Amino acid sequence: MERKIVLKQDILTALKKIGITAGQTIMVHTSLSSMGFVCGGAQIVIEALLESVGADGTILMPTQSWKNLDPTAGVHWEEPEEWWQIIRDNWPAYNKDITPTNTMGAVAEMFRRWPGTLRSDHPARSVAANGKYAAYLTQDHDLSNIFGEGSPIGKLYELDGYVLLIGVGYDKNTSLHLADVRADYPGKHNSTEYSAVMENGQRVWKSYDTLFVDGEDFEEIGEAFENRHSVQKVTLGNATITLMKQRELVDFAVQWIEQNRK
User: Fold this and answer.
1) Phi and psi for 60 in degrees, rounded to 5?
2) What HEC string does 103-146 produce?
């Protein structure tokens, strides 16, 4: 495929064409490289998103730092097991102003430091938001309640927000984890996780129980969802961008999981 050049105006045009308007609250998942050559990089993507929703809108992105989990969870698969205790003892405590994202992409990494952006306190599964509801969406992100009711994803549902995928698939669609929480399915269980956090001025290796999820069927859920619902798609450079109402996705996914997960 011939690599295309993408200008800021191209992004603004595509966002308008797909149905993004002022005042919307949108969870964005993006792959910068999927679009081709973006002239200005992550900066112009963020500018276009914020301009498209305006002062009354809100942009939300995952800014996960999941390397700050126990090595037994597989997050340090490239390191020998004899180092695992050293990692537990020395991994830096989460600092929402400093801690970088892990594999969230260049746009999310720049967005977390964007003027006016707020970031939640979860040491491994944080989100960042900019706009009208940024404070509401990012506050009180409980260690154990990563993706459930009252989490940033649960609050996005309350606000009747949207999900925008830019060059990525449903395997990156964090909102499906809210369906995991709400659905009943065989084998549903909690797991104990650990992260380095600050407590009373001291770094501690903190344990917390949370729902175990793997997302292996998220692409399958997305395909089924698009067969049943009208989902807007537009081409942007070399990428496809997809916009959906989060409530429609989550409600569908709960039913799908309960009917199909064995």
Assistant:
1) -125, 140
2) CCCHHHHHHCCCCCCEECCCCCCCEEEEECCHHHHHCCCCCCCC
* Mean of all residue pLDDT scores within the chain: 97
Distance CA 196, CA 71 (A): 12
Q: What share of the chain has pLDDT > 90, as a percent?
A: 97
> Kindly report the CA angle at 123 between 119 and 125, in degrees rounded to 5?
70
Tell me, what amino acid is at 59?
I
Report the b/e string of 106-137 with b at 16+ CB within 10 A.
bbbbbbbebeebbbbebbbbbbbbbbbbbebb
Placement of tokens 């996780």 in the chain: 193
Mean pLDDT of 104-117: 97
Residues in the chain: 262
Widest distance between CA atoms in the chain:
55
CA 38, chain centre distance (Å): 21
- Going by pLDDT thresholds of 50, 70 and 90, the confidence category of residue 262 is confident
The domain ranges of the chain are 5-260
